[in-house]
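Practice problem 4.
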């Protein structure tokens, strides 16, 4: 499985710091001193030793001043940089306008979530199996938000910071419905598309129709996943717009079966897109975290009326 993207999300390692190397100045050495006369040999040696001692001390002080000032400046600069907190600290990414949510189920289960962006169209992004949970979607979802999508990302049960009862853990429809309802309220009853990567793709394809999605995007979802029907079985009941994406060489899913699932769906608007390479988040963003052509297609699918 790809770590975010995934969807991590790989620009840094938490807890690692990088410093700027400084070349320490060489100490000056006393050379080329000539003895004028053997009678003055002892005094000159003593005087030379005293001068060398003073010179060395002077160099240490100068070096301390030269290095202390940049260090203080760097410390000052560091102290003025806002420390990341909340999801920004957890996910190692800053998302403008992000608001944290807590989606509460009737049985007390809780799915941490976040929303950002604006517009009359919304998308709920369901993550891959990496430990980052919702974090994996933030790079792509941030770009979608910049292009007019109201975004909701969430940790499903057993991932991220979610806390769920055993019953709710197996209730994928219930989990997706919580997020869909929150997103739909944010766009005042507007269109909401479920977008899932890898495991998330299997969940949205298997339970999205029943949960009430207005559209489904399955990105590299394995054909079979726990607690939901297979994609080919579920596809027979998918009547909302259905987009499936997979690379032919992706061993974590089957491009052939996803293509077949699209054909089996009775939806009037449906499409299978073959990715050139990659799995999950990797198919939507390139190495520089810029949207790929398929990433643009997913955005178009979300925003289509």
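Answer key:
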């Amino acid at each position: 499985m790809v770590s975010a993207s995934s969807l991590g999300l790989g620009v840094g390692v938490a807890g690692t710091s990088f410093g700027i190397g400084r070349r320490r100045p060489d100490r000056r050495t006393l050379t080329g001193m000539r003895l004028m006369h053997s009678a003055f040999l002892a005094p000159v040696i003593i005087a030379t030793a005293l001068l060398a001692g003073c010179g060395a001390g002077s160099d240490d002080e100068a070096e301390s001043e030269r290095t202390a000032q940049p260090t203080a400046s760097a410390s000052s600069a560091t102290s003025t940089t806002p420390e990341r907190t909340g999801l920004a600290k957890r996910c190692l990414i800053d998302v403008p306008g992000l608001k944290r949510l807590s989606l509460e189920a009737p049985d007390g289960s809780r799915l941490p979530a976040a929303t950002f962006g604006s517009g009359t169209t919304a998308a709920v992004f369901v993550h891959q199996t990496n430990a980052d949970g919702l974090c994996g979607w933030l790079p792509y979802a941030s770009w979608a938000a910049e292009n007019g999508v109201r975004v909701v990302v969430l940790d499903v049960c057993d991932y991220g910071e979610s806390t769920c009862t055993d019953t709710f853990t197996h209730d994928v429809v219930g989990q997706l419905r919580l997020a869909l309802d929150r997103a739909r309220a944010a766009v005042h009853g507007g269109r909401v598309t479920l977008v899932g990567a890898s495991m998330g793709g299997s969940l949205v394809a298997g339970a999205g129709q029943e949960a009430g999605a207005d559209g489904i995007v399955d990105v590299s979802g394995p054909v079979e996943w726990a607690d939901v029907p297979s994609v080919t079985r579920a596809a027979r009941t998918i009547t909302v717009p259905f987009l499936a994406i997979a690379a032919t060489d992706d061993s974590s899913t089957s491009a052939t079966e996803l293509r077949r699932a699209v054909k089996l769906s009775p939806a009037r608007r449906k499409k299978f897109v073959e990715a050139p390479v990659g799995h999950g988040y990797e198919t939507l963003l390139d190495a520089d975290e810029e949207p790929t052509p398929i990433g643009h297609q997913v955005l178009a699918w979300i925003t289509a009326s």
